[in-house]
Design a protein that fits this description.
The structure is a single chain. By secondary structure, this protein is α+β, with helices and mostly antiparallel strands. The chain folds into three domains: about 180 residues, START domain (Alpha-D-Glucose-1,6-Bisphosphate, Chain A, domain 4, 2-Layer Sandwich), CATH 3.30.530.20; about 60 residues, no CATH class; about 60 residues. It is about 50% helix and about 20% strand. The chain has 16 helices and seven strands. The protein has a seven-stranded antiparallel β-sheet with strand order 1-7-6-5-4-3-2. β5 and β6 form a beta hairpin.
Length: about 375
């Protein structure tokens, strides 16, 4: 199947996310039913949504076609999209969504009639047999989307069928706004910054952050990797990971625990505390930090800077590497390196896990 046909499925994934967001979240701030209390209300069965989007059909089409980019457009709600099977006229795909900490996997069958009509059917899950039919209408620089939904909710989702239709409309508008926002033209450096925000903070870059980091990139005063580390070190990121995503220590692998404890022993001369194991272990196993990232964070830490004179032997480090670290320190600061500096950098230099360029950068920027 050609990419242009396959790509039209993405709007349906969007709609599934919209429905899932409504079904899996009960936000008390949303509109509540008004008027006399109905002791036996009718469940939500059919809705029709019409939305005119201020973006031309071709551009909107291309935006929705990028399956790999989909989790980046809605980073807080989309964990993955995976096409399982496809023919010339249909697709089966799996989408994993998360809302209010609840994760749901839906299996979708998509039948398409290029550029005219799309039909989507939930074939697995508590929304099984829910059918979504949508039409694309081109209106010059605008696109009109007409969507009809026939709900079939069972199991754990039965009660959610009684939510007001206005909540569904509100969720739909929110999701579409995220796509439209993502479609705004950006420079190369602006895309780098915005993508990093979406990857790490799970949101688009705010105007202040976008402007700040874009200017620094253009002036070659910062690298994308340095932006990444600043975002990982931000209060916003750490608040989110500590409140929502930290693994328990018993959930971490023995290899992870051994790796982190080894870093602590070499650099800070102690075993890792439980907080350190949880924090760095989660970052490592979620692939947000590499081993070298964790090592460098500990070397840059205030605890390492405040450590007293190291009494451990330097015999495990060659004289050549000791002299190399000493001469680099003298070159940078007009003084020889402390023993703790020689030992830590020497161990990693001997093992080949650090280069002298990396050591020099850390010494210059963090160990003055």
């Amino acid at each position: 199947m050609e990419n242009k046909d396959k790509s039209l499925i993405i709007f349906y994934i969007l709609l599934v996310v919209t429905i899932s967001t409504v079904l899996f979240s009960v936000d008390m701030s949303l509109e509540k039913p008004t008027g006399p209390l109905n002791l036996a209300p009718l469940p939500l069965s059919n809705i029709s949504l019409t939305k005119v989007v201020e973006i031309n059909n071709e551009k909107f089409y291309n935006l929705l076609s990028d399956v790999d980019n989909y989790p980046q457009i809605l980073p807080k709600n989309i964990l993955s999209v995976n096409i399982i099977d496809q023919t010339d006229s249909s697709l089966i795909y799996e989408i994993v969504v998360i809302e209010k900490g609840i994760t749901s996997t839906l299996l979708i069958k998509h039948d398409f009639f290029p550029f005219e009509k799309q039909i989507l059917t939930v074939i697995e899950g508590d929304a099984k047999n829910t059918i979504i039919t949508q039409k694309f209408l081109n209106e010059g620089n605008f696109t009109k989307l007409i969507t009809d939904v026939e709900f079939h909710l069972g199991g754990s989702l039965t009660g959610f069928g009684f939510l007001p239709q206005s909540n569904v409309n509100s969720a739909m508008n929110t999701i579409l706004s995220s796509f439209i926002e993502y479609s705004v033209e950006k420079t190369f450096n602006e895309k780098i910054v915005d993508n990093l925000y979406r990857e790490i903070l799970k949101r688009s870059a705010d105007k202040e952050g976008l402007s700040k980091y874009t200017i620094l990139l253009e002036q070659d005063k910062i690298t994308p990797e340095e932006i990444r580390q600043e975002l990982y070190n931000s209060q916003e990121y750490n608040s989110a990971i500590f409140s929502n995503n930290l693994k328990n220590i018993d959930e971490l692998s023995d290899e992870t625990l051994e790796t982190i404890n080894e870093f602590y022993e070499i650099i800070l001369r102690r075993n890792a505390d439980p907080q350190g194991l949880q924090y760095f272990g989660t970052l490592l196993e979620s692939k947000k930090f590499s081993e070298s990232d964790i090592r460098n964070e500990l070397i840059k830490s205030s605890e390492f800077a405040s450590l007293p004179v190291d009494t451990r032997s330097l015999d495990i480090i060659s004289k050549e590497n000791q002299n190399l670290i000493n001469s680099t320190s003298y070159e940078l600061f007009n003084k020889y390196a402390e023993k703790k500096i020689i030992r830590v950098f020497g161990i990693y230099l001997e093992s080949g896990s650090m280069s002298m360029d990396e050591i020099k950068e850390i010494m210059l920027n963090h160990l003055k």
